[in-house]
Amino acid sequence: MYLHGTSKINEHGRLEIGGVDTLELAQRFGTPLYVVDEALVRRRCKEYMDAFRASGVSFDVSYASKAFCVKAMCRLVEEEGLSLDVVSDGELYTALEAGFPAERIHFHGNNKTAEELAMGLDARIGFFVVDNFIEMHLLNELAKERGVRTNVLLRITPGVEAHTHEYISTGQEDVKFGFDLGNGSAMKAVRDALEATQLDLIGIHSHIGSQIFEVEGFRVAAEKVADFAADVRRETGAEFRVVNLGGGFGIRYVEGDKPLMVADYVKAITDAVKERFTSHGLQVPEIWIEPGRSIVGDAGTTLYTIGTVKEIPGIRKYVAVDGGMTDNPRPALYDAKYEAALANRANEEAEEVVSIAGKACESGDMLIWDLALPRVRHGDILAVFCTGAYNYSMASNYNRIRRPAVVFAKDGKAELVVRRETYEDLVSNDVVPERLRKMSVVK
Ligand code: LLP
Question: What is the set of domains in the chain, with CATH numbers?
Fold first, then answer.
């Protein structure tokens, strides 16, 4: 079993996270339960900060909150000195409610509405990453109405294909995000931004994809951005203060995933930016990045209770848990792979190969195919690892299944950071029109 962060097997043979026995967690908070190893999140934050400090460049590390956006998480990354990316009014609201400093909030998104832009302006957030011409115009007008100026970065698509799943790669040309470098729209965007009365163009942004295990894509993107910066200076005289190379740093979900050390990604990026900007005779800009998954992904574990078992002799044994695609849609969406273990019998040898099914009414609701486990029993606790990123944030109420609670575990203590949804929560937005309120008989 691959143990992440502070996870270990304790003297009772049970999985422990942050010094807390997972069986006790399951009993105290119920299952499914997301458990976050707080020390590991903090360690990942520090790894990024330390790697940049060692590089000697001016930098900013912004946590991409889409990976896991709840108030306690915003507090935690703030304490670690990171900035925060939001991509919607909901994430912005969460960050502001958490008291995250507005000037360290970056607003992303390919279709920010006028309401979202206004909300960001009114909160005086630090930066908008402008994605397209309509947004640029709208933002400028809204800022004018308010008599304010705002900092913008322009998101460009560098034409780099990252080696990752098609749905999570974004740097190639045929994609919904950003201004294209190749067809001149990026240069036009720079000219428009320079002319916009309320916008301060401070830099350029590129994000090539997610769950990336190599530095090559980042290096090529950095070079393209630098080459573009040289073109911009030649054509307009303007220089970028900031280059933001996005997120996408891969993590180890299963054996065979070979992420680099955080320091290796950071070094490759900072070296490439330094070299290429210098070779163009440009000032080395501030270097910003925005990791999401690699901050919180491997710190998360989901605990489930094992329920029913269906054995098809000679074919397969289906073992069902009390959650599934509703709390982790990634296997169904991206064919994502996970490792798991029996939390309450973590030191027992594997004896059988089973497939872990979710409880949603859909045959595609399978979490893990062919997992080696000790002989499973009804009531065992299954721990699925590496569920910290894009699990809670992508959870749904399909089948009206309530979203699980989230706890932070650290130094032998577990604290609730999101309570389990209640039945009342489930129906709290439902409205029954007057005409449907009384029983009626259809003839
Ligand atoms: N910056 C931008 C502009 C992004 O679009 C993303 C992710 C990030 C940063 C953070 O990327 P990360 O470091 O987390 O890879 N739901 C998918 C992942 C979607 C990623 C979307 N953008 C999944 O579950 O794999």
Answer: 8-37+297-422 (2.40.37.10), 38-294 (3.20.20.10)
